[in-house]
Design brief:
Layout: H1 8-17, E1 20-26, H2 33-43, H3 52-57, H4 64-74, H5 81-97, E2 100-107, H6 110-113, H7 119-137, E3 140-148, H8 153-163, E4 172-176, H9 188-196, E5 200-205, H10 211-221, E6 225-228, H11 236-245, E7 248-251, H12 253-258, H13 270-275, E8 279-282, H14 287-290, H15 294-305, H16 309-321, H17 327-340
Parallel strand pairs: 1-2, 2-3, 3-4, 4-5, 5-6, 6-7, 7-8
Helix pairs in contact: 1-15, 5-7, 16-17
Bound molecules: adenine and zinc ion.
The site of zinc ion has 6 residues, from β1.
């Protein structure tokens, strides 16, 4: 065992006890099959599965697009404000069980407005659950509106227009969906407008796309964080830049295995990222589809890479320092991690 742990059970207990921030979580990707069936029944929506087991069996993906096809189909059961509330409340209950103290949550409004569900319905349901969780569990949160990059920049602009009445509830914008063929530069103008509105900026880059997309996200979109970023490691000059600028990477180990971004968890580059001085964090991405919430992601890499106590502490601290909490808000969480270390 790596330093300081007498047994795998002791390391698991340490992971469970660490206060964590989750910075890369698509709320629609937390839709568990059981809730999918319940909402399908409640809303009279047909789904092409006979049982929860059949749904889980369909979650075998060879790449990002395989997953996205099923992910967009799954979110079709989400229709009412109450549905978005229940989805978000279920995630926050799971997050609390994993000792997540702060969550920065993505949502994909275009996946809903395209089906005739109003933007206001989506965000009213999500924010009601976020407010409840703060009251009930003390979990703080921020919301990040993602543009779907397989759609046009004009459609992203129209989505940002719809968000304007809700800007007090939206911390930032992001970019997700099919990466290859849809470089960050496609969204230069809408990201510039979001920046001028005072929003934080993030983008998925270097998940399947080349290191050049990570550079574009930094140079053209001027993002504050990179989501995934794995393929940055192919470009030593980019790695040096990410390290020297302290850019946070929101890494998702189980997602990377399930979407074949890495061959196996034992090949995951997380330790290489830390060794290169990158500010990596551990996140669950779409936990219902990829086999685990945040603690399962920590556990999988800790076991496969024999992560030490110091490395786990660094990852947990990076979650808070890479968050959009201000330094005063981060401080008690960092102190709580320090007290465990
Ligand atoms: N949408 C939901 N999960 C995603 C991922 N891992 N990559 C790109 N788009 C996504
Ligand atoms: Zn993602």
């Amino acid at each position: 065992m790596a330093d300081g742990f007498a047994s795998p059970a002791e390391r698991a207990a340490f992971i469970a006890a660490l206060p964590k921030a989750e910075l890369h979580l698509h709320i629609e990707g937390s839709l568990e099959p059981e809730l999918m069936f319940a909402l399908a029944r409640r809303n009279g929506v047909a789904i092409p599965f006979a049982s929860v087991e059949e749904v889980r069996a369909a979650y075998a993906f060879s790449n990002l697009q395989d997953f996205l096809d099923i992910y967009y189909q799954g979110m079709g059961v989400l229709q009412t404000e109450q549905d978005f509330h229940d989805l978000t409340a279920a995630y926050l209950d799971r997050a609390r069980a994993d000792n997540v103290r702060h969550a920065e949550i993505f949502f994909d409004p275009q996946g809903h407005t395209a089906r005739g569900v109003a933007f206001g319905t989506v965000i009213a349901g999500i924010t009601r659950a976020l407010d409840d969780a703060r009251e009930r569990h003390g979990i703080t949160s921020k919301l990040i509106l993602c543009f779907l990059r397989h759609l046009s920049e004009e459609e992203a602009e129209a989505t940002l227009d719809e968000a304007l009445p809700w800007l007090d509830r939206i911390a930032g914008v992001g970019l997700d969906s099919s990466e290859v063929g849809h470089p960050p530069s496609k969204f230069a103008r809408v990201f510039a407008r979001a920046r001028s509105l005072g929003l934080k900026l993030v983008a998925h880059a270097g998940e399947e796309g080349p290191p050049e997309y990570v550079r574009e996200a930094l140079d053209v979109l001027k993002v504050d964080r990179i989501d995934h970023g794995n393929r940055s490691l192919e470009d030593p000059a980019l790695v040096a830049r990410l390290a020297s600028e302290g850019v946070c990477l929101t890494v998702c180990p189980l997602s990377n295995v399930r979407l074949c971004v890495v061959g196996a968890i034992a090949d995951h580059p997380l330790r290489a990222m830390l060794d290169a001085g990158l500010h990596a964090t551990v996140n669950s991405d779409d936990p219902s589809y990829f086999g685990g919430y945040v603690n399962a992601n920590y556990q999988a890499v800790a076991d496969a890479l024999d992560l030490s106590r110091a490395e786990l502490v660094e990852l947990a601290c990076n979650g808070f320092t890479g968050s959009f909490l201000d330094a005063e808000e981060q401080a008690p969480h960092l102190a709580a991690i320090d007290a465990l270390a």
